[in-house]
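TA notes, week 10

Several of you asked for a full example with nothing omitted. So below is the full record: structure tokens for the whole chain, then the designed sequence directly under it. When grading your own attempts, check the secondary structure regions first.
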């Protein structure tokens, strides 16, 4: 397969630039993008249409985690989007990553969402890790020789992440880890974990991050969760029973783990919002075609003014969400002081409003939208969880309000 890393930035994706979506319309995702960014999007969309979309519904029904397909995305550089080229990455800005994840999600939201999580872990190690850690882990993560999971949530602490109780007791040159993590994406099928543990007292300052290889003795997994969506991505509890981790696997400094976790989630929120964009964009494309082809009362559905108005509302929500997501990404790239609030705002708006777009697309399909043979229902199911993970909508409200009120 064509390899991005062998090409100059200006020609990275040209060989794969052969598809467009509702081009020349008001909801064209290419509006406002540079030539390079359009090429990035074309490559991701090509992969989505050829590798993901034809298999999306089968993977959902069989609950297959498509490891081989995920690893093939690394040939395009999608395993290390934000990582230094020294460790096999592309070192792209968050804005360009958002464009790529949106396009990938048009083929399969669940698979694209896992790729965002893998990239989040890889970027955290590249940003905060030692040279030895980067050399050991980032190169293999960028090539997807190894896959990663992010472990923050626990059975008793979700939104209140600083209340986590998984502990790491230091003994000589190692930490002894005990506890459990819940709702871990990719768990049981990945090769390493970045785990938030308690090495000190209560609260966020007592949290540290550890890199743990999954073949370390003492790690076990709970039963795979049965979910409404994200079915082709395993999710389960990860248990740690006297797991010995070398002190050299501490990511950052002791007590810095909560800050590292939040840093990762800022980018993660942009990524998940981008996946919601991809789901909504594909639902709109599908329903525009469906309402053109479907006849009722001796005319196409889209001849009905109510349907036209609904399509207009959906297009407006998508375009508005895309603007705020890309603004948040640019703010995070520029390290602006309001970046955290904008990341929260973009996730809140995009995941809430674009789930409604998917719901409206299903409604316009009528009874056919409720059949699993039509992909609109899967985009609807797979995007629902985006309002929960990487920080619930309620927590996003809190973060935006906090930013507003701190200036009083």
């Amino acid at each position: 397969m064509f390899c991005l890393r062998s090409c100059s930035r200006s020609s990275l994706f040209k060989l794969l630039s052969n598809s467009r979506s509702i081009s020349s319309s008001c909801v064209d995702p290419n509006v406002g993008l540079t030539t390079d960014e359009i090429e990035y999007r074309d490559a991701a969309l090509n992969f989505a249409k050829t590798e993901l979309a034809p298999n999306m519904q089968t993977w959902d029904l069989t609950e297959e985690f498509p490891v081989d397909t995920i690893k093939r995305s690394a040939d395009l550089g999608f395993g290390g989007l934000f990582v230094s080229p020294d460790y096999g990455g592309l070192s792209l800005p968050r804005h360009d990553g958002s464009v790529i994840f949106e396009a990938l999600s048009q083929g399969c939201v669940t698979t694209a969402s896992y790729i965002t999580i893998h990239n989040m872990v890889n970027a955290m190690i590249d940003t905060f890790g030692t040279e030895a850690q980067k050399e050991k882990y980032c190169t293999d993560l960028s090539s997807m020789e190894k896959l990663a999971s992010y472990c923050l949530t626990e059975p008793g602490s979700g939104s209140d992440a600083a209340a986590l109780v998984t502990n790491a007791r230091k003994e000589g040159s190692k930490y002894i880890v005990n506890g459990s993590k819940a709702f871990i994406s990719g768990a049981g099928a990945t090769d390493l974990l970045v785990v938030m543990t308690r090495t000190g007292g209560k609260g966020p300052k007592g949290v540290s991050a550890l890199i743990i290889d999954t073949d370390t003795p003492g790690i076990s997994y709970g039963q795979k969760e049965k979910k409404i969506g994200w079915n082709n991505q395993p999710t389960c509890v990860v248990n740690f029973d006297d797991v010995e981790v070398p002190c050299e696997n501490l990511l950052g400094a002791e007590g810095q783990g909560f800050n590292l976790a939040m840093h990762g989630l800022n980018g993660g929120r942009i990524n998940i919002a981008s996946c919601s964009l991809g789901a909504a964009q594909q639902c709109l494309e599908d329903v525009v075609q469906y309402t053109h082809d479907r006849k009722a009362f001796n005319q196409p559905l889209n001849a009905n003014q109510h349907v036209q108005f609904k399509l207009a509302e959906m297009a407006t929500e998508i375009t508005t969400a895309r603007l705020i997501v890309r603004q948040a990404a640019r703010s995070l790239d520029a390290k602006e002081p309001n970046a955290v609030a904008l990341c929260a705002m973009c996730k809140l708006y995009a995941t809430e409003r674009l789930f409604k777009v998917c719901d409206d697309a299903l409604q316009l399909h009528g009874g056919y939208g409720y059949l699993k043979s039509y992909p609109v229902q899967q985009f609807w199911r797979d995007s629902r969880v985006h309002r929960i993970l990487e920080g619930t909508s309620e927590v996003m409200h809190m973060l935006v309000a906090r930013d507003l009120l701190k200036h009083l």
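The CA atoms of residues 95 and 330 lie 6 Å apart. Use that as a sanity check on your answer.
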